[in-house]
Specification:
By secondary structure, the chain is mostly helical. The chain has helices spanning 19-31, 36-67, 74-93, 98-117, 143-160, 169-173, 177-189, 193-209, 214-232, 236-247, 259-270, 296-329, 333-357, 375-393; strands spanning 124-127, 130-136, 139-141. Helix 7 packs antiparallel against helix 8. It is globular, with a radius of gyration of 24 Å. The two termini are 26 Å apart.
Length: 405
């Protein structure tokens, strides 16, 4: 018989190996996470946003001062304001049940299409050759960023009821293509090929995670690629960018089509292993247009070097792993499709942005998710992650097997 002795007065506190677990539990309670994959996605997203604020401040200080009467913090303050709106909004949306998204999906896509129509009215304006922006009361927005999110939840809603049941072309095309095609056509009408390309990726990803046959998806990819090439060569500006990407830059192209891509590569190359130091970029002194937005990865490479660039790539890889784990954990088709579409949206857009900076793709003009300056893009991406978190939190827990501790 074993005798249990009462603890002595002044007994030592629990051993240190128990303390880290208590800290982890406290952090999970703080953010409301009940699964490690939810914490992974949520924590990585918030870290990317905070890192992005630092890089926006560094990359925009010079042009912000020159364009805003000496105010070095104008662009950073605006981005910080949208981060203060977006992060709490993401955490609040993460508390919503899955039924909320299905209930409002159709209304969301109709509202988003209505907002996209505004770019063709007196509220719309041209920026960088794209008629894809609106200005209301001095506030500017890019409706196509919200159209991406609306397309995600609408596709998940209409495809969930027939997931894994695609028998012919009609079953593949009818629920997804009419509204998606209209949305993409409206964005292309504003000459924004980059955003339209990401929306195509979202549609294909939604069909893939809904269980559409790979053969039919391959045919769709070929047809869409041919259409994208035809559209690209319909404009001299886009065709010139593709030409210099394929054939290299000539001296005549240097000050026009090649300026951004060449200076981006110079910025990346001058960073070396450890970079020039935070704030010490030379390219941001008006040598690299849009250094704080579409080409912010070049500034990261210049100031933080190869190490900083690899850290950013690693963060997106971690985010992708977390999202993939969530997709694999869903048995409900709606949750699986919506989460998979957001995965393709965020990670696909990051890949395109980085590939453009490295010269692997022609200039398309898409921001680096969570890092580039751009309030509409930041809030829309955070709303997408908030939906992903809500679908994961409202998922029924898997019962533990007998004898599991």
């Amino acid at each position: 018989m074993t005798t249990v002795r009462p603890p002595r007065h002044g007994a030592p506190e629990p051993t240190p190996e128990h303390r880290p677990r208590a800290v982890v539990v406290a952090v999970r309670r703080l953010f409301g996470a009940d699964r490690s994959d939810v914490m992974l996605v949520q924590g990585t997203t918030i870290f990317l946003v905070l890192f992005g604020l630092v890089m926006v401040l560094s990359s925009s200080a010079v042009t912000s001062s020159q364009n805003n009467e000496g105010d070095f913090f104008a662009v950073f303050a605006r981005q910080g304001l949208f981060a203060l709106i977006g992060i709490p909004l993401m955490l609040m949306l993460a508390r919503l049940p899955a039924v909320f998204w299905r209930r409002w999906a159709r209304i969301a896509v109709m509202v988003a299409l209505g907002l996209q129509l505004l770019v063709f009215t007196g509220l719309g304006y041209d920026y960088g050759g794209n008629q894809n922006w609106i200005s209301i009361g001095g506030l500017t927005a890019q409706p196509s960023e919200f159209l991406k999110f609306a397309l995600v939840i609408w596709l998940a809603t209409v495809l969930a009821d027939r997931a894994d049941g695609f028998s012919d072309w009609r079953s593949v095309l009818v629920p997804a293509i009419p509204v998606s095609g209209l949305a993409i056509a409206m964005v292309l009408a504003g000459q924004d090929l980059g955003t339209a390309s990401i929306m195509v990726v979202i549609v294909l990803a939604a069909l893939f995670f809904a269980g559409a046959p790979l053969g039919k998806l391959a045919v769709m990819v070929i047809v869409l690629a041919a259409g994208a090439v035809a559209f690209a060569f319909s404009s001299s500006s886009r065709s010139n960018r593709i030409d210099v990407w394929l054939n290299g830059c000539t001296p005549e192209d240097y000050e026009l089509t090649c300026w951004q891509s060449i200076h981006a590569l110079w910025a990346m190359g001058s960073g070396g292993i450890f970079g020039q130091g935070l704030g010490n970029s030379a390219a941001k002194w008006r040598w690299l247009p849009h250094a704080e937005s579409d080409f912010i990865f070049a500034i990261i490479g210049e100031e933080l070097g190869l190490v900083g660039a690899l850290v950013v790539l690693a963060l997106y890889a971690v985010l992708a792993v977390g999202l993939i784990r969530l997709v694999r954990g869903h048995t409900d088709p709606f949750r699986r499709i919506a989460t998979g579409a957001v995965l393709a949206w965020i990670i696909g857009q990051a890949f395109v942005n980085i590939a453009v900076v490295l010269g692997l793709l022609p200039v398309l003009g898409v921001p680096l998710p969570f890092i580039s300056a751009g309030g509409t893009a930041l809030v829309s991406s955070l709303v997408g992650i908030g939906m992903v978190l809500s679908l994961a939190r409202s998922r029924p827990s898997t019962p533990r097997t007998a004898g599991a501790s």
